[in-house]
Design a protein that fits this description.
268 residues; alpha+beta; Tumour Suppressor Smad4; six-stranded antiparallel sheet; six-stranded mixed sheet; 7 helices; 32% helix
């Protein structure tokens, strides 16, 4: 059964988040779920993303703290980094967690996030996780970025084939995949015929791959003596839930593809 998350406010409002989707919450108008809270909560405070492993909760405020609380733990989520992305988040594998500012938690008016439709075998206890209910995700990639698209195309063969026997795409193949995903079919013929254009686009992809390797290294996801080959890097992205099989659904999402088209070809 697909995993989903149920998010409830203290006033009784409830929103369900299906696997592969996300909900932005805060006290401002430009959110999916508006929360009646004091100034201890940002106008855009956090995101709840439903994924195969559970519900991922992150702080997207640069100024305000956000907490996740469960039985035996209260976690302060890291704020948004200067680069515009969270440096980590809380992955709730099963059960319910309370989310909000310190005042919301202390005064008894938090959001409740509950994982539902858990697949068999998910949410089982793990000695490294408090009560087996959550874990800190060390790296998050915003789906509405070019970096995410590059990572998804890079990981796609092994997401489709968990035995990891399919070869991974190299930078020209990822570049070609970006053209296909963003519907830039008018550029495909040029990509095949024009070596200078192909090299330019491949170099752009190579820069994104370099950023992904640096993030993996900076987060300590690979040992200092481990060479971050394509295969090692992709395995880390998949095993840590940074890119998941649920993300493949975005490749068929017209709105997401349109946004990526804007990022790659309009805003570039």
């Amino acid at each position: 059964m697909p995993v989903s998350a149920r998010v409830c406010t203290a006033s009784g409002q409830e929103v369900r988040v299906s696997e592969g989707s996300q909900l932005v919450f805060g006290r401002g108008p430009e959110v999916d779920l508006a929360v009646a809270a004091g100034r201890g909560l940002s106008r855009r405070a956090g995101i709840v993303t439903a994924m195969a492993a559970g519900a991922w909760i992150t702080n997207i405020s640069r100024t305000h703290a956000l907490y996740v609380e469960g039985e035996g733990y209260r976690i302060r989520l890291p704020r948004l980094e200067d680069g515009g992305e969270p440096s980590g988040g809380w992955l709730l594998h099963a059960g319910t967690a309370l989310v909000g500012s310190r005042a919301m938690l202390d005064e008894g008016f938090p959001l409740e996030v509950t994982v539902t439709g858990q697949r068999a075998g998910d949410g089982s206890p793990d000695e490294s996780q408090p009560d087996g209910e959550g874990t800190i995700l060390p790296l998050y990639l915003d789906p509405m970025t070019k970096l995410f698209l590059v990572a998804l195309i890079w990981c796609r063969p092994w997401l489709l084939d968990p035995s990891a026997t399919r070869p991974l795409p190299r930078t020209p193949e990822i570049a070609r995949g970006a053209l296909e995903v963003t519907g830039a079919y008018h550029e495909l013929e040029r990509f095949e015929a024009d070596a200078e254009f192909r090299d330019l686009l491949s170099a752009r992809v190579a820069e994104h791959i370099k950023v992904l390797r640096r993030k993996i290294s900076d987060r300590g996801l690979a040992g200092a003596d481990v060479r971050l080959s394509d295969e090692v890097a992709v395995r880390i992205l998949i095993e840590h839930g940074i890119i998941t099989s649920a993300d493949l659904g975005k490749l068929a999402d017209p709105a997401w593809r349109s946004r990526q088209e804007d990022l790659w070809w309009t805003e570039a």
